[in-house]
Each structure stands twice: as structure tokens, then as C-alpha cells.
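Researcher: Here's a chain I'd like modeled. Treat it as a single chain, no partners, no ligands.
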Amino acid sequence: MSRLPTVLLSLLLLPAAACPGPEPVYNEDIDLEAVPVQPGELAGTWAVKHAFNTWADIPIVGRSEAWGDTYLLMERTYDEQSGSYAQTLKPCWGSLASENNVSYIPDDGWLSVPAQAPRGLEARDDDGFYSVDAHLELWGLEGLDDPYDDPIPVDENEADEARFADMIVDMDDDGKEGMTLVVEEGFYSGELYFVQRKKLDLEGVMQGPDKVVGLLTPSFESCTISLETGGPIVQGKPQHPHEDPKANWFEEVRLPDGADCTDVIAAKDDELLSKFTPF
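Model: Modeled as a single isolated chain. C-alpha cells:
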């Protein structure tokens, strides 16, 4: 009897060779190669920094730049069945700066902004690719059917219209509708009350199970609804991302499970979160 069937049977019984995984992603914009992780390894509690730099065209003044940082607490979960992640982020604190004014948001204001999930998330453990579609922050706004794209007021007149009446809330609970910004120096001094929808698109790479870095593209829709001193309101001009893509970046670092905003601020102070661009 021919030995061919036996040979073929032996080959079929050999253990299958492991298929090589995809090559780690290389991000040219930040000149960094991903360090992939095991499935589900990115789940947990994280401290996040969003650093932004934008500019606007101001009448008479011309180009005016603004910059700032937001520090957030992120909870990320993993679904083994679908092999996908979900995450929510809550602002903890931040800083603002501008060429034309000195201002800040009180600490209670940052903490009052609720946690939100992005519209989309792609985190590929096998090659280390990471992207977020529309990280969302709603400042002084709630109850939108589509929080990412529903219209919001563009000026103080629209803010008084019935269609926006239930949308604008005293989120920071200081007795004033919207959110409070304290302007110390600039064209106006005093408290300013505003609403804002902030969306960020992120793309970067995993750096092992405890860190993710990359670039972000910011989008701000803002409306001043009133001033502490009364008087006419000059609405802000559209903000554009800085031409240098590395001027807008993000970093995520792992925290112990159960960490809170206090731990996020400690990560900032201890420079576990980078003070300057981490790439």
C-alpha cells in the first residue's frame, strides 16, 4: 500500500505554526513606533492630559493665540466578546492662557463637567494603533438629543430662545446660567458666563500597557450668554488649530484602579504626565 496517505496524515497532525501578528504601527507625525499590548491590557483607570494651541483672527488686533491644558480622569473597559474598548473621560482641572487676556475657570467649574464617552474609539492591541473620534466635553449644556452635532446657541440672543431654554444649565452651581470664566485682565474684566461644546479627534500609538501618546485636533463651539457687569457682549471668534500639528497633543498614563481626580492632579504635579510634549 502506498505510504502517501500516511505522510499526508502526519503532516496534517503537525501542530500549526503560529501566524505572525501585524507589524507595530509607526506614526510619522510624532516619529514614534507603537508598542503593542495583549488583548484587553489597556483597560483600567487613567490620567489624561490634552494640550491645545489655537488661534483666532480678532478685529483690530489680528491674529491672537490661545493655549491651555486639560487634565482628565478616564475609565476604560474591555469587552472580550467583541474585542473592543469603551471609555469615558471627566475633566478634573485645567489651565487657560491667551495673548489678549488673563483668565481662569474656578476649580469647582472643572469638576462640575460630567464624564462623556467619545463618539468613536479604535484601539488595536495587536499593532498599537489608537484613535478617538470626537472626545466630547459639554460645558453648561445638557439634554441634547445628539450631543455631538445638535445645534447650540451661537450668541446671547439665541441663548434666550425657547429652543435652547432647557439646554443651558447652571452646571457649576454658582447661581449663574452656563459656566463661569473669571477674566482678570483684557478687553473685559470680571465674570463671564458661557456655554461650550468641545470636541477633540485624537490619533496616536500605544507605548505598552501603561501609556498612550499622540496628536489631537481641537474644535470649540462657544457662546458668551451674559456678563457680570452687564453691557454689550462681543462674541469670540472661531478658533483654528495651530499650524504646527505637534502644538496639540495628548498623553494617557495608567493610574491604580479606583483613582480619582485627586490622583490625576498628583500625576500632573509629579510630572507622571509630561509637562512638555512627550515625543
